[in-house]
Structures are given as C-alpha cells and as structure tokens.
Amino acid sequence: MTETTQNTSVRPRRVGVVESDVRDKSRKVVVAFKAKHPKYGKYVRRRSTLQVHDEANESRVGDTVEVEECPPVSKTKHWRLVRVISRGVGEGA
To answer: Burial level of 7, CB count in 10 A (0-12/13-18/19+)?
Structure first.
C-alpha cells in the first residue's frame, strides 16, 4: 500500500495596494496592518513596502493585489504577483 504524498508547501501571501508601476515588470506594493505597541498596548498602523515581480505588467497604481513570496528574482524582489483582486483609480486615469 503505497501512498503518494504531494509537497504542499504553502508560501506566505499578502494583500496590498500597488503604489508604483513605473518600472517594467516590477511593482511597489504597500501592505498595511495593525500591530500592538509593546509598552502601551495600543494598536498602531504599520505598513510594509514590497517589491513585486509582475511578469505580464497587468497591475496598475491603486489596484488591490495578492502577492506570494518566491525565490529572489533580483536584489530586492522576493515576491511575485498572484492576481489582481480589484481595480483601483490610478494616477492620471
């Protein structure tokens, strides 16, 4: 009785908003979250800026996107675009 097991490694995914789409195949995505202050206990807003690889140049400024961690594409790009969740109102549109 041999059972086939698949390697179902789940890579971290984040949802954020595209902040910049100036570069070819690259996007700057801002992921906002709340974190508890270590001393005062109040929840404060934080954000992370991710450099994302967008192979098809399908996202634009203001879009809400889902990104997934991947092997390094370049010095700063360690995330890739999975899908565009919703279209936003971009700059100059």
So the answer is: exposed
Domains, the chain, with CATH or none: 13-86 (2.40.50.140)
Please state, in angstroms and rounded to a whole number, the distance separating the CA atoms of residues 58 and 42: 38
Helix, strand, coil share (%) of the chain residues, nearest 5: 0, 45, 55
What tens digit of pLDDT does each residue of 61-92 get? 999 999 999 999 999 999 999 999 999 876 65
pLDDT, tens digit, 9 for 90 and up, residues 47-59: 999 999 999 999 9
